[in-house]
Amino acid sequence: MELSGARFCCVLLSLFAGVASGLEITSTGPTSMEKASGQSVKLDCQFSLAPEDSGPLDIEWSLLSSDNQKEDKVVILYSGDRAYEDYYEPMKGRVHFNSADPKNGDASINLTGLKSSDSGTYQCKVKKAPGIRSRKMLLIVMVKPSKPRCYMEGPAQEGKDVMLRCISSEGTNPLKYTWEKTSDNKLLPASAVLDPVGGSINVRNASASASGTYRCTASNRVGTEECTLYLNVTPPPNTAGIVAAAIITVLLILIIIAIILFCCCRARHRKKYEKEICNEIREDVPPPKSRVSTARSFTVGSQRSSLGSMSPSNLHEYALKPQYDKIPSSEEFERPPSHAPLPPPNAVKMAGPNLSRMGGIPVMIPAQNRDGSIV
């Protein structure tokens, strides 16, 4: 019984010695790394083989799924003395074995042009029958902050609260914001309240001494970016003067509108009055007298011309016509034909040849009716 127990112990020791001397992962580096997007990283996986590991060598790198319901994604393979580097489409051309011949004990890989989607847990699995070993590593790809935008909220007036804000649109959390004054005494106002997470600084009851240039810096574990802002605190505006100016402006506009309306109404009234006057003139205008006046001028002219052409020989003939010795007055001429005086009975009619010989011009006087209208 004692011999059998000793033999059993020797068998167990030999078995443990075989396992210990078989395939092993020898990398001792960190199992968690943080890198910035765009950088490169080496995932270390060194291994050693034992003489009894005589099977084919297989190396597999996979990106483990955070959901147990989903399959792991194989990134790169080495099998049958051949590397398959373009196995995973999202990392095509960006993942390579660190060694040209991984059989030498280096199963490490290099990832280039890191993206935030490359973050996750990677597993290196080395198989060479009968041995099999694996190693896991956590990779966190962080995005550095983008250039932040600095801006101001609220009026920059004395006695008011002024809010300065700084926001970076990209960057892996946690992001931290810091503010500093870069002009004058380079000290933040005593009333300033900082929010390092939200990226704001609230300058309460601002004064002229708060004016100056401010710089905001956004940072995380992989990078920093900054922006600047100039704050100019001004005295409050004269509110009473602004209100008075507004009232005066409104009154001037109302006066101008009233003047325009008054002018338009007056012009319309004048036009209407002129139109009514024209209508009254057409209805009440007396009969025209222009032709009677013309006839009178013709008669007077003919008499004067007849007097001018008289000679002593025919003067006695003209003396026989007393109706031509004077020019009729306007009352006699405007008298209706029915009241016109008849020529004396002994008047001698002037014949056409005698009138022509005396240098006179016969004139036709138009006939008129009783109311004076020309027929």
From TrEMBL:
Keywords: Cell adhesion, Cell junction, Cell membrane, Disulfide bond, Glycoprotein, Immunoglobulin domain, Membrane, Receptor, Repeat, Signal, Tight junction, Transmembrane, Transmembrane helix
Transmembrane feature ranges: 242-265
GO biological process: homotypic cell-cell adhesion; kidney development
A Pfam family matched in the record: Ig_3
Residues annotated as domain Ig-like: 23-139, 148-234
Biological source species: Dicentrarchus labrax
Domain of life: Eukaryota
Family annotation (InterPro entries): EJ_Adhesion_Regulator, Ig-like_dom, Ig-like_dom_sf, Ig-like_fold, Ig_sub, Ig_sub2, Ig_V-set
Signal peptide span: 1-22
Biased composition, class Polar residues, residue ranges: 291-312
Molecular function via GO: cell adhesion molecule binding; virus receptor activity
Protein's name according to its UniProt entry: CXADR Ig-like cell adhesion molecule
Membrane topology per record: Single-pass type I membrane protein
Cellular localization per UniProt: Basolateral cell membrane; Cell junction, Adherens junction; Cell junction, Tight junction
